[in-house]
Amino acid sequence: MATDSNAITVADWLKQSALAIHQTGSGSAKIDAQLLLCHVLGKNRTWLFTWSDTELDAAEQQQAATLLQRRLDGEPIAYILGYREFWSLTLATEPSTLIPRADTETLVEWALELPLGPKAEVLDLGTGTGAIALALASENPGWNVQGVDLQAGAVALASRNARDNHLSHVTFCQSSWFEQVSGQFDLIVSNPPYIDPEDHHLDEGDVRFEPRSALIADEQGLADLRHIVDQSRLYLHGDGWLLVEHGYDQQAAVTELFRQAGYLDVSTREDLGGNPRITGGRWPAQQLA
User: Fold this and answer.
1) CATH of the structural domain 96-282, one choice from 3.40.50.150, 1.10.150.120, 3.40.50.2300, 1.10.238.10
2) 153-201, pLDDT tens digit by residue?
3) Taking every pair of C-alpha atoms in the chain, what is the biggest distance, in angstroms?
4) What angle do helix axes 131-139 and 105-113 make, rounded to 10 degrees?
5) Distance separating alpha carbons of residues 77 and 212, to the nearest angstrom
6) CATH 1.10.8.10 correct for 10-74
7) What is the reported pLDDT for 288?
8) pLDDT tens digits for range 18-66
9) I need a surface site. Which of 49, 56, 64, 147 has the fewest CB within 10 A?
């Protein structure tokens, strides 16, 4: 019985593709290959292993090869697939916004530990895909969560993610930081641009494909962080909290910004790689005259 010399099984495609991706320097080659093939076949990862001897037809091979080449060219998986898992959510992604990263879940975890009450008012500055705002809202149906972003495309994407994840108590609007914001908040969170424009990491990995406006900031990456720490004081309730993500080498500088601005209980938490990544502080309650 004749066999198709071009036939390739799921297992063989995953092995060959993971090796090719690994040779580009990726540290997630196996999972990348699995996610690409899951997308092509419309199956989950369990299916890949259960039916690993299934042969791919010509159309599946062609589609998989096209996606694989994009990954070999360095394009991030999240942009190729059009979505990214964050917290318990599936978020649509676009090249106009940053890709949500697992390290940012450290900020979400910290925020959820704070004694904010069941009706907290929360503001997410520079929301991007809406990842932080939506993660917090998903855990607290009574919270009123607002996200803002300078880019209209990001606002539209975050709003779409809210709808797709059935989180109706989150709203998004276009604003340059606090320009269109009013009211007082119990919690302000932000993952702002914090990379020095001269940082060589901008030419490496996934960040090569991400929007520079969402990555870099003046003053060695501290300009936006400085603005947020300073201006948040005007929008926080007494005993309200500010939590910000920053670079692995910016802990001392960001801590000093918080302390100079008058925040209390200033501390920093590490990301999944053990790097100082999230700094936060509490705005003091107003003292009676």
Assistant:
1) 3.40.50.150
2) 999 999 999 999 999 999 999 999 999 999 999 999 999 987 766 666 6
3) 94
4) 40
5) 18
6) yes
7) 35
8) 999 999 888 789 999 999 999 999 999 999 999 999 999 999 999 999 9
9) 49
